[in-house]
Every structure is written in C-alpha cells, then in structure tokens.
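Session log. Operator J.P. requested a structure for one protein chain; no other inputs attached. Running the standard single-chain path with token output.
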Amino acid sequence: VNSMIQPKNNHLIVELVTYNATKSGLELVSKDDDKGLRVGKVVSSSVDDLKQDDLIVFGRYAYETLLFEGEEFAFLNYEDVIGQIIK
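Structure written below.
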C-alpha cells in the first residue's frame, strides 16, 4: 500500500530537481549544490495556484526535507515560492 502526504495550511510538497538553463541563459543550481536557488516539481499542493508537476523556484533555506517511504521530499510554505518556470 502506497501512502500519501497531503500538505495543509498553504504548504507544498515538492521533489527537488536539477534545472540547468533557460532560453535566456539563466542557470539554476542542482539539489546537490549548496548555493543559490532551488527548483522543485510540485508533488502535492494545498493551494489552487500550483498543480502537480509545476516547476517552481524557491530559496535554498526555504524548505525542510522529509524521507518518506524511501523518497526525499521538500516541504515549503507557498509564500516562499519565488517564481514558476513556464515551458
């Protein structure tokens, strides 16, 4: 049985991802780098503005991690989202 975590109170659950460059040449760091911004793919959201699989940008100190059923997830507050990557 696979369990799920549902975020509450304007929080998001994201998977940290590597996102190297945009068309404008902006380079964002990977989850293994200790500097700069982070990119995450929304796994679950308690806000209507962001949906599953949306890519978002947030600060490196804006989240807490949880190891759940062998996978690492980041939890952050919606107010800590700096931007959304639109493809």
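Operator note: The CA atoms of residues 41 and 55 lie 5 Å apart.
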